[in-house]
Amino acid sequence: MKVTVDPVACEANAVCARLVPQVFSIREDEEGEDVLAIAGDGEVPAELADGVRDAVSRCPKMALALYGLRRSTTKLSATARMIKTPRTMFCQ
To answer: pTM for the complete prediction?
Structure first.
């Protein structure tokens, strides 16, 4: 799994950096502006994947994206039900 940032959309609010500081950090660019830095080339270690998914979902500007996701083979519990909306499908 790989995480990327849209530098135009990102406002460096640091929500992701507070949630997963091993992957995200805020630094100053050449012009003194705060920008988001992603460790390495954006490859997410397996042990940090859940935290990164959480950070992506909480980004207030939706500036983070995940690539290389594999479909989960986990079966839903009997109490879970699928809800369909025009835009998305999620479990409740």
So the answer is: 0.73
